[in-house]
Amino acid sequence: MTEFFAKISIKEIGTCFAVLFAVIDILGSIPILVNIRSRVGFIESEKATVVAGLIMVSFLFFGTKILNFIGIDVESFAVAGAFVIFVIALELILGIQIHRDSSPESASIVPIAFPLIAGAGTMTTLVSLRAEYEMANIIVAILVNCLLVFTVLKSASWLERKLGSSGLDILRKVFGIILLAIAVKLFSENVQQLFK
After folding, report:
1. Cα(173)–Cα(168) distance, rounded to whole angstroms?
2. Which among 89, 97, 129, 133 is least buried, having the fewest CB atoms inside 10 angstroms?
3. Could you report the per-residue pLDDT of 134-192, keeping only the tens digit for each?
């Protein structure tokens, strides 16, 4: 436990938080959340947050083992992840709509917890971050993101009214640019390891 806290870095937590926040894009998903709630009547915020958090932490711990089992090194996955993050960033900046299923049988788990929050982009990002940052800092970043996700799920309609469509659009573009810069950094640092 002491070793866990010894590796805590506010700077790393901030970076990991920003990356995950941009990939999850929970604020950008507010219109989708409002639409889902209107279809099913309500969203179980607690259940969606806990399930998404468990998926993310599980993949963080076992993602590398799965990769090793199929013969892929972390650096290669990180480079692939950089491409995925790059595409997500372009989608955010250019305003391209990411296709998401919005008519679930159980809205709290599918599609909110998975794939809206803990989707393929999030999982790829987690493995990419693991190649670059301490595990302890990534876990803290996941927990902080889960807290934010819970808050947004609880107050989705209020946030939509307050931010408006232009406010949500600005948020998407800002986090898209941050994500683009991080994708370039992940690619440049890990691609060098592949050729060593």
Report:
1. 9
2. 97
3. 999 999 999 999 999 999 998 877 877 777 778 777 877 887 888 788 788 878 878 87
d(CA 36, CA 102): 6
Vertex 78 angle, CA 73 and 84, to 5°: 135
Burial label for 2, CB within 10 Å (0-12, 13-18, 19+), is: exposed
* Helix/strand/coil for 36: helix
Q: Rg of the Cα trace of the chain?
A: 17
Q: Whose CA is closest to 177, among 96, 106, 93?
A: 93
Q: How far apart are CA 183 and CA 196, in angstroms?
A: 21
User: 42: buried, middle or exposed (CB in 10 Å: 19+, 13-18, 0-12)?
Assistant: exposed
Whether 17 and 177 have beta carbons less than 8 Å apart is answered as: no
Q: Please tell me what DSSP assigns to residue 104.
A: -
